[in-house]
Design a protein that fits this description.
globular, five-stranded mixed β-sheet, alpha/beta, 359 residues, single chain
Length: 359
Amino acid sequence: MNIIDSRRRRRTRGVQASALLAGLALAITSCGAPEAAPPGQEGSGGGGGEGETVTIGVGGQTLLTYLPTTLADELGYYEEEGLDVDLQDLQGGSKALTAMIGGSTDVTSGYYEHTIQMQAKNQPVKAFVNMNLSSGLALVVSEKNKDTIKTIADLEGKNVGVTSPGSSTDMFVKYLLSQNGMEIDAAAVSAIGAGSSAVAAVEQGQVDAAVMLEPDITVLGKRLGTEPTIIEDVRTLDGLKEVFDAEAWPSSSLYANADWLEQNPETAEKLATAITRTLDYIAEHSGEEIAAEMPETFAGGDPAQYAAVIEELKKTLSTDGAFTEVGAEAVLKTQRIANPEVGEADIDLAETYTNEFVD
């Protein structure tokens, strides 16, 4: 069996496992979500077949914020580090977190802020490699509401789509509402997942607005034939400064239960090495070259457009995989405003992340 056939076989196995784990995650959380992943959203599993097996739950695998996690697999970096990695697409950060806490996965490719949320619940979770310096989010208004929703205040009583309740997209809505003098529940939120389901929900007016990420925003614009109406945007570092008043806001990362990290330090280091090698690869290659390495379905039928969006993404990616205290403080500030469960809770940021595996 040649290398290509081997990779295809591993990917098929990962898709089957992804469906099983997605069902489990749905069963153990009360958050609503699509019953099945839409076309093009199935996870691509990896694994060398001989190495140590690690299952990683991804909070929406086609979203570019998690591109390094998948690209590391496509480049064979996990395998080269001696790991047999299964990537499971769980369609939302809160679902991926729930799967890990429930023991269905070992590691989560999700947003760093979840480690803060879990510490507030006395459940030690720690991030060990950072991939992105910005959350990459944008608040998009559906076409039917573009003349009536022009500010955050106009969201009162409206229905806003998020990947899943409790995810970073949900926290973004609550943060924006609070910062504009509104109650954090002034707008309702609905789970629309990521990828084609999110694009369809906004395009068809199933929600009044939605927090979206790339490449979904660009795909939506293509479907609409015009630039989507956006009222808040942190896809760039300038936007990040404007909305969060921060130079860095660590988002997509790999995190795990603190006990797992203590028991598996070598595995954690191998994962961190694979991701930092991937960040180096991204910095040294064009969006077109990177897109060519990714699963074909992730491009949504437009490889050139996908490559262009990846090129823009490169500007906000971490270069070394490390967390900074300033960035962690910025995320904590957001959580204190948007998440009542964090609020004024005593949070030790030093216990929410570590750079020991990327130094």
